[in-house]
Amino acid sequence: MNKEEKYDLVVALSEQMKEYGNFYITDTSDLTVAKVNNIRRQCFEADITMKVAKNSLIKKAMEANGGDFSSIYDVLKGSSSIFFSKSATAPAKLIKQLRKKGEKPILKAAYIDSAVFIGDSQLDTLTKLKSKEQLIGEIVGLLQSPAKNVISALQSGGNTIAGLVKTLQERG
User: Gene3D superfamilies attached here (predicted)?
Assistant: First the structure.
């Protein structure tokens, strides 16, 4: 790979980091070409983009992106593959599914909406993360619940008060 190709790869990786907002760095070393192609096919089916790149180029892409990726730099050793996805949990679920058939890929690190998860032990946590839309929906639901209760109480109480006022008027 010449200098210009490396530069283009760094720019492409950096743009994908910005575009997707979520990426997973995994260890896919020692896998056969057939197994890597199988992983790529499953990534494609799950709407995940998989890239294999040298660690030094991944680090340069992170530096070019401007975020705080310093905690990820330590895991950039050995062979690394990057999984990009709009969904924060899709790559974790795919990795977990792939691990039922073999020991790899191993999660080195994940970057999810500015949160960093280091190590393969984080895989279960990552599969259970809720999307931004799910969290917003839950918050809206929680906020609406008390308001609905107050409105309901006022409406039912209003009918009682209106009936009471009407009765008092008829007596007077």
Answer: 3.30.70.1730, 6.10.250.290
Q: For 101, what's the count of Cα atoms within 13 Å in the CB-facing half-sphere?
A: 9
**Whether residue 137 sits in one domain with residue 79:** no
Task: Give bridge partners of residue 27 from the DSSP assignment.
Answer: 106
For tokens 């924060």, the residue is 88
Strands (E), the chain: 22-27, 49-53, 80-84, 106-112, 115-118
Residues with Cβ within 8 Å of residue 89, at least 6 apart in sequence: 126, 127, 128, 129, 131
Query: pTM above the 0.90 mark?
Result: no
The per-residue pLDDT for 70 is 85
Q: Which amino acid is at 26?
A: T
Instruction: Pick the closest to residue 6 from 86, 76, 60, 82 (CA basis).
Output: 60
